[in-house]
Structures are given as C-alpha cells and as structure tokens.
Amino acid sequence: MMFDHAKHTLPARPGVGYKPQHFAEILQDPGPVAWLEIHAENYLGDGGRPLAQLRHLAERFPISVHGVGLSIGGEGTLDEAHLARVARLCDWLQPASFSEHLAWSSHDETFLNDLLPLPYTQATVVRVADHIDRVQEVLGRRMLLENPSAYLAFAGAEMSETDFLRELVSRTGCGLLLDVNNVFVSATNLQFDPVGYLADFPVESVGEIHLGGHSVDADDYGAHLLIDSHDAAVVDPVWQLYRGVIARNGPLPTLIEWDSDVPEWPVLGQEAARAARILAPV
Amino acid sequence: MSQSGFVMALLDPDLPVPDGLIDGAGRPAGRRFSVYRNNVVGSLTEVLEKGFPVLQKLLGAEYFAALAKVFLRSHPPETRVMMLYGAQMPAFLAGFEPLAHLPYLPDVARLEQALRESYHSADSIAVAATDLAALSPEDFISARLQLAPTLRMIRSQWPISSIWAANTKETAPKPVMRAEDTLILRAEFDPEPHELGQGAADFIAALLRDETVGTAMDSAGSDFDLGATLSLLIAGNAVTTITRPEYAQA
After folding, report:
1. Max Cα separation, chain A?
2. Its pTM surpasses 0.80
3. pLDDT tens, A66-115?
4. CA nearest A226: which of A161, A151, A153?
5. Chain B residues within an 8 Å CB radius of A262
6. Which site in A11, A219, B171, B216 is 20 to 30 Å from A75, CA atoms measured?
7. What pLDDT does A282 receive?
8. With an 8 Å Cβ cutoff, is B15 touching chain A?
9. How far are the Cα atoms of A29, A45, B86, B92 from residue B51, in angstroms, in the given order?
10. ipTM of the complex
11. What gap in Å lies between CA B93 and CA B107, rounded to an integer?
12. From CA A204, how far away is CA A268, in angstroms rounded?
C-alpha cells in the first residue's frame, strides 16, 4: 500500500470528536469536516464494532488520537503497560497526530478518570518532561500536549502556565494542542486576561486547536466558576479568541469537541462550518 | 501537596480540601476542589450506568447512583480503559448486605460484564454449517471444536437469562425462579445472551476444555439436544476451527 501523506497530516481545516452514533452520517456527508479525533482509551479493545468502525473511518479521514489516560503529570513513573497498548493502537492506525494532556489522572494503581491539576514548578517541569520524552520514544513520534482547564491554582507555583509549556517544548521538542475553551475557562476561573495569555502562548509550536463548550457554576463567593464539560456549543467569546489566534497565526487544524449531551450530526456540522469560515474566509 | 493527599481527598468528601490550593485571588480553593470530586464521581458513575443498564433498571436510577458511589470509592479503577471498569461489581454485590435479599443480582452483574467483554473481544472467522455436515460420523465424534473469543457462558442458580430479557425486551415473559445457564454469542458486533437447554452448558464447557465432541456429548447427559446446541453455535458464528483427529496427530 502506498503511503498516503494526506492521511498522515492533520489538515488546517475543521475536525470533530468522533461519536459512534454519527458513523453513517459522517461517511455519507461529512460537510466541512476534514478529519476526526478519537480518544485512545475507547479503542484499546481486541476487536468488535469500535475497531471495525475506526478501520472504515481511517480509510477516508486523517485521524487524530487523543489520549486521556497516560497521566503525564503523575508523580510516579508512567504506566508502561498502558503506554504499550496506546503504541500498539498507533502502530496499527498510523494516525496523523497523537496528543495528551498537561494533567495527571492516576496515582499508584488507582485511576481517577479525570484530568487533575499540576503546580507549575521547576520540579514539575523536570518530571513532566521526562514523561513526554518517554511517550515520544515509545510512540516514535512527536506528541502534542494540551493546556488544561483550571478550577483552582497552587500557592507554591513558580511560573506561569505559558512559561511552563514553553519550557516543556524546549526540553522535549513536543508540540502543543491549544484548547481555546480551556483558556477561556481558566481565565474566568482564575481571573486573568485570556488575550494576554494567548499573546504569551508559544503559538509557533501549536499543531492543533480545540474548541468546546462549557457549563456555568459558582464558587464560594458567588463568582462564576466555568466547568469544562464539553456538553454545549462553543460560546461567542471563545469564537472571538479563536478568530484572534487564526488572524495572527494563520489556519490550524481545529477540532470541535462535544463529548456529552452529544447533538445530532447537523448541529456538529454547523459548528465545524463556523470554524471553516474563520479558517478560510471567503 | 502530594498527589496521594489529593487522591484521598478526592475519594472521601469528609476529608478537608488539601492545603495549598487557592483561587485566583489567593483565597482557599474551597468548593472549587469539589469540581474535581464531582468529575471523578460523575464520570465513573456514568461508566457504571452504561456498563450495567439492567442492574440500574432493577434497582432504580437513584439507588444505582448511590450504589455506584459506594462501589467506586471502595473499588476505584485499576485500569485506564473504562470499557471494562466494574469487573469487581459481582463480588461487591455478593458482599453488599443491604441487597442480600436480592441474591440473583451478582449473577445479573456477571452477565452484563460478560456482555461488555464479548463486545470488545477479538474478531474471528467462523466455520459454516456445511463444514460440520461434511464430517463423517466417526470424524465428527472425535473432532475438537474451537470456539470464538467472543463467547461467554454463565451458569447460575438464578434465572438471569429471563431477568435480562424481561428488562431489555418488551415481549419477554416474566421470569420464574429456577437455575439458568446463559450463553453469550456475538454473531457480528452485538453480543446476545441465549438461555441454554438441558446439558448444553456441560457440552460447551467440555468443548472449551478442548475435549472431543464425543466426550462433550457424554458429559451432557441423556436430555441434551445436540442439534439445537450446534445450530445455536453455528448461527452465532461461534465455532472458529474444526480439528479432525488426523490433523491433530499430524
């Protein structure tokens, strides 16, 4: 089989997080959707429908594999058995991209199934960089690391998130996945300026953008506390920030992330079309 | 703050929020920490609800959510692959005193977990009915049948097949109290439970031990319906290899 370069690079066009209920519609009429993203951990079974669907989709679309379980920010060593399973999936699928989170999700044998926060210190940089090195070594490819959504901060922080990410990029050569909704959520929750954050973000290392929806809660003092719930449409202020990023840096592969209360396919298609208009204005 | 302290506080809402966590103005994080507590409990509860829909129906959504909370705090995942999280649910239920009056629940959970396992098991190519029919009677008796990795069998002293059907199909009859053997087959992508007739579970258990068809038939007793059992296995694409004696010895 000839190596198809187009399938092994994410195009600077809209993609969506793949949901099995959309399988038939995606194949029939993807609209502006040019690529798909899957969560690695949902495709680590031995067979059955998930892998069969993925095989079909990968014949037609570039695929981005997004890990949610490697716990790159964990205090302990990486789970080598899990990393090997992810590597097996990537070897088989030959995805256009692999990304994970700046977060931790397990401790010893316990997996918490959530993305937990890290203090931005020199000690954390060293540990996370070691883990990224190991992932890139085992997968044999450069990975993208995603900025988290924050609900709280650490009293012992020694540097900003953007400096922390820049330091990781320079130590490991990894790329970044810029989640603009996460920036908006964190900026609201921790009261900083998202425009200033984005101006300071090492955008030259960004290989992919995420756009998702959030829900609104309140903290102990009645201030807005935004939850990165991926259960709604992207809000206007996030589109505004995204427009600024694209205007400044040119088009980038852009994912619409909608993981719970997943809508009908046309609604996702409309979100992707909105991103397409920003990526390639007529 | 260590991650182990963070984890303990995540799983135990009676523990205080760990020190050193603040909001944007430097005040203690307070209920901001609860976002993580809620995410952990909410996401794992959702995994269990998806994995054990019949259990949830039998207990009611509210009771199941409360049960899930007790389960996930005492048995947090030891795997990062959520498709099979809940493997310890049957054992947990067996020891869960408040539900001791519903003694069939652990086996219902076993059945649902087996369905999940089957769904994600490896694909294989099945033999056709004509392949079996082509064997001479002697070859048939001494053949060994390899079964698909998607096949699961659960033997229970409770009518779990009927309970499962009554809670998933509109037309299923009301379960009657009796022992039932259930065979899960995945003909293509969707695993289906089938209630087995007399002796069939002994027959299939022998095949799984790699006994010959003849030995398996002997273990199944006199009321065993060989034709019906073979038809079920063939229709479920569950026989993947027929090993005839001359090949076995070669």
Report:
1. 61
2. yes
3. 999 999 999 999 999 999 999 999 999 999 999 999 999 999 999 999 99
4. A151
5. none
6. A219
7. 65
8. no
9. 31, 15, 8, 15
10. 0.94
11. 9
12. 28
Is pLDDT above 90 for A9?
no
Listed by start position, the domains of chain A span: 5-279
Is the predicted pLDDT of residue A7 greater than 70, yes or no? no
Residues of chain B with pLDDT under 70: 1, 246-250
Q: What is the pLDDT of residues A40-49, one digit of tens each?
A: 999 999 999 9
> Which amino acid does the sequence have at B55?
L
Amino acid (one-letter) located at A233: A
* CATH of region A5-279, choose from 3.20.20.150, 3.30.1780.10, 3.20.20.70, 1.10.150.320: 3.20.20.150
Task: Give the CA radius of gyration of chain B.
Answer: 24
Q: Can you say how many angstroms the Cα of residue A9 is from the centroid of all Cα atoms in its chain? A: 16
Contact check, Cβ <8 Å, B23/A116: no
Q: Do B81 and A41 touch (CB under 8 A)?
A: yes
Can you tell me the distance from the alpha carbon of A151 to that of A119, in angstroms, rounded to the nearest whole number? 13
User: Which whole number is the average pLDDT over A106-133?
Assistant: 96
Long-range contacts of A233-241 (CB under 8 A, 24+ apart): A233/A267, A233/A271, A234/A181, A234/A271, A234/A274, A235/A184, A237/A184, A238/A180, A238/A181, A238/A184, A238/A211, A239/A211, A239/A274, A239/A278, A241/A180, A241/A183, A241/A184, A241/A194, A241/A195, A241/A198
What is the spatial distance between Cα A141 and Cα B206, in angstroms, rounded to a whole number? Answer: 47
Residues 72-101 of B with CB under 8 A from A: 76-83, 85
- CA–CA distance, B102 with B92 (Å, rounded to integer): 13
Tokens 């037309």 correspond to: B171
Which residue reads 């996401």 in tokens? B43
From chain A, the residues in CB contact with B47 under 8 A are 113
CA nearest to B117 within chain A: A45
Chain A contact present for B125, CB below 8 A:
no
